[in-house]
Specification:
The chain folds into two domains: 124 residues, Jelly Rolls; 98 residues, Jelly Rolls, CATH 2.60.120. Helices cover 0% and strands 55% of the residues. The protein has no helices and 22 strands. A seven-stranded mixed sheet has the order 1-20-17-22-15-13-14, with no helix packed on it. Strands 2-3-4-11-6-9-12 form a seven-stranded antiparallel sheet, with no helix packed on it. The protein is globular, with a radius of gyration of 17 Å.
């Protein structure tokens, strides 16, 4: 087993006024050759967007893009004709494939928007772009892990072009849950959204990240009430 610990304060940080961004991996003006990716997990951005502000129309291609709102609402528009508003409990998934254009903005005139933006390197290139959006009852994530992403269109949650599984869960203090990998060749990147956890002896605070390698299963223990965590199981070879 090997652990890769990324404390929250070690992330890249950018304050653009309208956008406060924290980058777990190299992104935009933040570059660290030792923090390029975790296997197929290429980008993990923790963004806060000011009221009525957002990302103007911009392109993507050949990337799986997952957006998870944490607070507030985000309005999305894209070149596929989609226009939706997402809130906490919603998950947006796009396969950029041969190319898309999209924009995102904070829907509120008074409240900040907080969200996670995640990019996964796909296992198929030049696919037809696709959009998907799912919602889940937050109560279903209490003291258990809720699957939100998999490689299988027929499975629970949404799907992406990669041998990857994402789970999210909220836990009471003292709750212990075991995670077993779907593919023993994969690794898991754990990201603490709130509260405290312990994984394989490593204490994790809010916005800390932990890469877990060469381990078929592990226990995660919540050390505070309303602790929330995101687990991203991805291939390590891309």
């Amino acid at each position: 087993m090997a652990l890769i610990y990324h404390p929250a304060l070690s992330r890249g940080h950018a304050d653009h006024g309208w956008l406060i961004a924290n980058h777990t991996f190299s992104f935009s003006s933040y570059y660290d050759p030792d923090r390029m990716n975790f296997g197929a997990l290429r980008v993990l951005n923790d963004d806060t967007v000011a009221p009525k502000m957002g990302f103007a129309t911009h392109p993507h291609d050949n990337m799986e893009i997952i957006t998870i709102p944490l607070e507030g609402e985000i309005t999305h528009q894209d070149s596929m004709g989609n226009e939706f508003t997402l809130k906490k409990g919603d998950i947006q998934v796009m396969s950029a494939g041969t190319g898309i254009l999209h924009s995102e903005r904070n829907s509120s005139a008074s409240e900040p928007l907080k969200l996670l933006q995640i990019w996964v390197i796909p296992n198929k290139r030049e696919v037809t772009p696709r959009y998907d959006q799912i919602s889940f009852d937050l109560a279903t994530t209490q003291n258990k892990l809720q699957q939100i992403i998999s490689p299988n269109p027929e499975d629970v949650g949404s799907w992406i072009y990669q041998n990857a599984w994402f789970h999210i869960g909220r836990f009471d203090s003292g709750s212990v849950t075991q995670y077993t990998l779907h593919d023993g060749q994969n690794g898991v990147y754990a990201f603490v959204i709130s509260g405290q956890f312990e994984i394989e002896g490593q204490l994790l605070n809010p916005r800390d990240g932990l890469g877990i390698l060469n381990q078929n299963s592990f226990d995660l223990k919540s050390l505070s009430n309303e602790s929330q965590i995101l687990l991203m199981e991805v291939p390590m070879s891309v």
